[in-house]
Design goal:
Layout: H1 7-18, E1 23-25, E2 28-30, H2 33-55, H3 65-79, H4 85-107, H5 120-142, H6 144-150, H7 155-180, H8 188-219, E3 226-232, E4 235-241
Antiparallel strand pairs: 1-2, 3-4
Helix pairs in contact: 1-7, 3-4, 4-8, 5-6, 5-7, 5-8, 7-8
C-alpha cells in the first residue's frame, strides 16, 4: 500500500516553499533568499578578484584550455550586443554579470540553500537595473524625448521579474511535490531536483541576458532619419533631416 500525505499537508508544504517565514537580519524580517544572495555575491566577487590578480595576468597569446573557455563565454555575451556600438561596452559586461548571478544564484539550491531568484525582490531588482539602462541609453541617443518614450514601458521590469520568478519557483514547487509523496522519495527527487535546477539556471540566465540586450539595444539606437524628396526642375534632391 502506498502511503500519501494528506492534501492539507501538501498545501502547507507548497505554501512554505513559495512563502517561507522571514528570518532575522539586523532586527529586520527578510526572505531567506536574502542570505543566499549575500553568499552568492560574496563568492562571485571573491572569485573575480582572484581571477583578476592571479589568473588573467598569466593569459597568453596562445590560449590554454581555461583561457579558451573563459574567452568563449565572455565572447558569447559580447556578441549579444555587437550590433549596437552605443551599448556594446556596457551591456556586454552587464548581461554577463547578470547571467552569472542568476546561474549561480539558482544552482546554489543543489547544496540545500534557497535560490536567490525565489525571492521576487531579487528578480525585480535585476529588472529595474535593465530598465534603468533603457532610460539612460534612450536619453543619451535620443535626448529627453527618448527617455520619456521609454517611460511608457513601465510594465517591462514587472513582466521580466515575474517571468524569472515564475520559472524559478516552478522548479521549487515540482521538487517539493515529488518529495511530498513517499513512494517517490527514493532516488527520483535527486534526479528531478538536479534536472530542474540545471535547466532553470541555464535557460533563465540566457533568456534574461537576451531580453536585456534586445531592449537596451533598441533604446540605444539613434532615431531614424526621415528622407524628403525635393523637386527642382527636372532634378530631384534628397534632403535628410532629423
Amino acid at each position: 500500500m502506498v502511503y500519501v500525505l494528506g492534501a492539507s499537508s501538501l498545501g502547507e508544504s507548497m505554501r512554505e516553499a513559495m512563502l517561507p517565514d522571514n528570518v532575522n537580519f539586523l532586527g529586520l524580517g527578510v526572505n531567506p533568499s536574502f542570505y543566499t544572495s549575500l553568499i552568492v555575491a560574496g563568492v562571485l566577487i571573491l572569485f573575480a578578484i582572484v581571477m583578476r590578480i592571479f589568473v588573467i595576468p598569466r593569459f597568453k597569446d596562445t590560449p590554454g584550455k581555461l583561457q579558451s573557455i573563459l574567452e568563449s563565454i565572455v565572447l558569447m555575451f559580447d556578441k549579444m550586443n555587437e550590433e549596437n556600438s552605443e551599448t556594446r561596452a556596457f551591456m556586454g559586461a552587464y548581461v554577463f554579470s547578470a547571467a552569472i548571478y542568476i546561474f549561480f544564484g539558482t544552482m546554489i539550491e543543489l547544496i540545500g540553500l534557497r535560490p536567490v531568484m525565489a525571492d521576487i525582490n531579487a528578480c525585480l531588482a535585476l529588472s529595474v537595473c535593465t530598465f534603468g539602462a533603457i532610460l539612460f541609453f534612450s536619453a543619451k541617443t535620443k535626448g529627453g524625448k527618448g527617455a520619456l518614450g521609454a517611460l511608457k514601458d513601465l510594465t517591462l521590469p514587472v513582466s521580466m521579474s515575474f517571468r524569472l520568478f515564475g520559472s524559478i519557483s516552478s522548479g521549487l514547487l515540482v521538487t517539493e511535490l515529488v518529495y511530498h509523496y513517499i513512494f517517490l522519495s527514493f532516488g527520483l527527487p535527486v534526479i528531478v531536483g538536479v534536472l530542474f535546477t540545471c535547466f532553470h539556471a541555464v535557460i533563465q540566465a540566457y533568456v534574461f541576458s537576451i531580453l536585456s540586450s534586445l531592449f537596451v539595444g533598441e533604446a540605444g539606437e539613434p532615431s531614424a532619419k526621415k528622407v524628403k524628396i525635393q523637386k527642382t526642375g527636372s532634378e530631384q534632391d534628397l534632403v535628410s533631416e532629423e
